[in-house]
Design a protein that fits this description.
The chain is α+β, with helices and mostly antiparallel strands. It has five helices and 23 strands. It has five domains: about 35 residues; about 80 residues, conserved putative lor/sdh protein from methanococcus maripaludis s2 fold; about 90 residues, Elongation Factor Tu (Ef-tu), domain 3 (Beta Barrel); about 50 residues, RNA polymerase II/Efflux pump adaptor protein, barrel-sandwich hybrid domain (OB fold (Dihydrolipoamide Acetyltransferase, E2P), Beta Barrel), CATH 2.40.50; about 110 residues, no CATH class. Helix 2 runs antiparallel to helix 5.
Amino acid sequence: MNFLKKNRALWIVLLVLAAAAAAFFYFRQSNTASAAAQWQTATIGTGDLVATVGATGTVRPNQTAVIVWQTSGTVGDVSVKVGDHVSDGDVLASLEKTSLPQNIILAEADLVTAQRSLEDLLASKTPAAQAFITLRAAQEKYDKAFNYRDSLNGPITIEKIKWVKEKIGGRTFEVPRKVEVKVDPDTESIDEAQADLDLAAAQLEDAKRAWELIKDGPDPADITSAEARIAAAQATLNMARLTAPFAGTLSEVHPMPGDQVGAGVTAFRIDDLSHLLVDVQISEVDINSIQVGQGVSMSFDAILGQDYTGVVTDVGKVGANVGGVVNFTVTVELTDADELVKPGMTAAVNIVVKEINDVLLVPNRAVRLVDGKRVVFVLLADGTLEQVEIRLGSSSDTMSVLASDNLKEGERVVLNPPQDFGNDGPPFMRR
């Protein structure tokens, strides 16, 4: 009987101990599960990383021009409307001739006269023939002056009257006779001959230059002068009309037939929409990673659910300091723009600066700075956290390349670790 009582007491103790152990393990597992449930985690894995630099900018056309009237008058013809595509030089509008200032009306006559003068200059052979005759005469004059001056280098033969005795009818008389005698020229004669020779030489050089200019056609200077007169007259006439300075689309059309306009009044705006550009400001921290030719992705608040692509076409060389921040202007061109994209829209631009394939990645949300070092917190199987110091490589908006080897694929890192890990915080270890 005592034996049975003793065994019964032992069994009771064993049951109590078993119940206590079960309760301990139950509560421990419950606490572990509860602790694990409070963390948001991500699994370390391999993948591809696209590193980007983001900025915002405004869409602008490749080229824009505001066209204004150059003179006053009454609008006659307006040959375009908003949205029309025009070519370089197309006439957009003109003023009535009777309403124009006098100098513009007379420019038409000046243009005809200048054009006729140029045609005569190009067609006539008279100037060349006259230049040749002038050259020949100058050469003859020079030769004559040279020969005369050369003859003064020594004695010259001249005719003089000399009285000689001759018998005439048995009587002797003194009669005048012309005889040639050699004399030395005087200094005055030489100086005069040299002056004549110098003048003849200068005139010959002038005649040669004139002939060289015109022997193969009109003098280029005369042609330039005639063309300038034509251009001046045409420019004056052009003030009576407005033309497209380049090919593009008319985004503003103001004049209507019959309007009274004056110089400086805006008439049209034209935009080259064949290339749409976005200028963005990039920080000095990122500018050295930007290069011409890099790919770009873009999105617009005004165009929901659609992304566009582009390419970097220009990188600023000089930064601008605005409010203590140095930024550089980078220009991006859209490569797949459609009719939905319009100048003035705001674009969110992401420039692809690097693409890396098959690397171990860690979410940026999991990285913390502790004592000046980058760390992540790994969730262990028992619900505790392990602090791991890491080194990072290139980054995107959401992920970074893991440059250290102390994390392995498949480990779970905490995305929302608490700020402090003191005595009251959750347990953790350091790796």
